[in-house]
Every structure is written in structure tokens, then in C-alpha cells.
Amino acid sequence: MNIVALKTDGQEAYLALYQAETLLTEEHWDSGRELGRDLIGHIKQLLQHCELTFSEIEGIVYFAGPGSFTSLRIGAATVNTLAYANSCMVVSETGDDWLKIGIQRLLKGENEAV
Questions:
Q1: Phi, psi torsion values for 23, nearest 5 degrees
Q2: Shortest CA distance to 82 belongs to which of 108, 56, 101?
Q3: With helix as H, strand as E and coil as C, how does the chain read?
Q4: What per-residue confidence (pLDDT) applies to 114?
């Protein structure tokens, strides 16, 4: 399962690509006020790095807070758009283990996408 992980709770954004529980690649960057403009481009570059396309995303886990309201909403809107466009599963998590728990939930077949 190709899983995109996304954390946009503040000035620094985090993006990763997993194959099940195996990390393929990740990126941290100072998103500042440009998150809404740049996020999709960063996701596209991450996928291209692993020779994947948007249509090959099977699951998305994203950090749901706490953090900057605007940054979190940009992340959530992006995740929901990708999930809708690709008919893939989505879960959100909070806390220090958000990524591990989120990936486990996706692998169990959980889905919060509407």
C-alpha cells in the first residue's frame, strides 16, 4: 500500500511516502506562508522521486493537531481533495505517535474519507 503522510501544523511542513510500514522518502521544509501554494508540488516531487503518480496513492495519514489552524486546514483540504480524486483511504491522528498509529489504521482498512 502506497501511503502519503502529511503534517502541516506550523511553519515546518513534513511529508513522507511509505510502502506499507517502510519509509521510502521524506521531506521537511519551511512552508511559511506559502503552504497552500506549494503543498501539491511537494507531494508531486515526492511521488516522482519514487517513480509513482497521484493515482497510485492508496492511503493518506495526516496530523490533525494541535497546531496552526490555517496550516492544519490547508493540509486537511489537500488530503481530502487527493482522497476524493483518487478514491483512496484517509485517516487523521494526533499525538507523538500519529504516524505509526495512522499507518497501522490504514493497513487495517480504516477509512475516514467521506
A1: -70, 125
A2: 56
A3: CEEEEEECCCCEEEEEEEECCEEEEEEEEECHHHHHHHHHHHHHHHHHHCCCCHHHCCEEEEECCCCCHHHHHHHHHHHHHHHHHHCCEEEEECCCCHHHHHHHHHHCCCCCCC
A4: 66
C-alpha cell at 105: 489504521
* Residue 70 CA neighbour count, 13 Å, CB half: 7
Task: Give the pTM.
Answer: 0.93
| Residue owning grid cell 503518480 | 53
> Which residue do the cell numbers 506499507 mark?
20
Q: What's the pLDDT tens digit per position in 23-45?
A: 999 999 999 889 999 999 999 99
